[in-house]
Amino acid sequence: MTIKKPLAINQPEVGQIIRDLRLLAGLTQEQYAATLGVTYTTINRWENGRSKPSPLAMEKIEGMLEEMGAQGQDLLVKYLPN
What we know:
The chain is mainly alpha-helical. It contains 5 helices and no strands. It has helices spanning 11-24, 29-36, 40-47, 55-67, 70-79.
């Protein structure tokens, strides 16, 4: 069994990657919130840099990035250039 290391994204980037992912998926903040099991206000706070997703939420966000294939990978490269 492999333990997956969570994404290490700084606060300004986490809001941007969440917004970009949501827009790429064609979702409103309300729809994205329902997908992740959080409130609209939570998504708004994340996108505006007022709070940061929990580790569980980051796992869900990471899963969505993986499901998006090349587009998700492009976002990871944009925000996590290693």
